[in-house]
Amino acid sequence: MRTFALGALTGVLAATIAASLLFALTDHTSPATTTRSAPVTAHLGDG
User: Fold this and answer.
1) pLDDT tier at 24 (50, 70, 90 boundaries)?
2) What are phi and psi of 2, to 5 degrees?
3) Cα Rg of the chain, angstroms
4) Nearest CA to 2 among 10, 35, 26, 40?
5) pTM value?
6) What is the rounded distance in angstroms from the CA atom of residue 20 to the CA atom of residue 22?
7) Cα torsion 22, 25, 27, 32: sign
8) pLDDT of residue 23
9) CA pair distance 3, 32, nearest whole angstrom
10) What per-residue confidence (pLDDT) applies to 7?
11) What is residue 42's three-state secondary structure?
């Protein structure tokens, strides 16, 4: 039972770490795409 509990705890920790990493990666990539697309639309509007 103790080994099963340790395995479950490590699994939960790994899942939370993976989720936080995924959220961090998506949060860092989304502002970059928006900032890159914003000047393009501004230049097209000035056209």
Assistant:
1) confident
2) -65, -40
3) 21
4) 10
5) 0.48
6) 5
7) negative
8) 85
9) 44
10) 93
11) helix
Q: What stretch of H or E contains 37?
A: helix 2-46
CA 11 centroid distance within chain = 20
Query: In this structure, what DSSP letter does residue 25 have?
Result: H
pLDDT at 12 over 90: yes
pLDDT at 1: 84
Q: How confident is the model at residue 15 (pLDDT cuts 50, 70, 90)?
A: very high
Which two tokens mark 25? 């990666």
Virtual torsion, Cα 7, 13, 19, 20, nearest 10 deg: -160
> What is the rounded distance in angstroms from the CA atom of residue 34 to the CA atom of residue 43?
14
* Spacing of C-alpha 39 from chain mean position: 24
